[in-house]
Amino acid sequence: MENLNTKVITGKVRFSYANVWEPKSINGSNPKYSISLLIPKSDTQTLNNIKQAIENAKKIGLSVFNGKVPANLKTPLRDGDIEKPDDEIYAGCYFVNANSVNKPGMLDKYKNPITNPEDFYSGCYGYASINFYAFNTNGNKGIACGLNNLMKIEDGEPLGGRVSAEIDFEGIDVATLNAEMDEIFG
Question: 128: which residues sit within 8 A by CB, 6+ positions away?
Answer without folding.
Answer: 9, 10, 13, 15, 35, 37, 98, 147, 148, 149, 150, 151
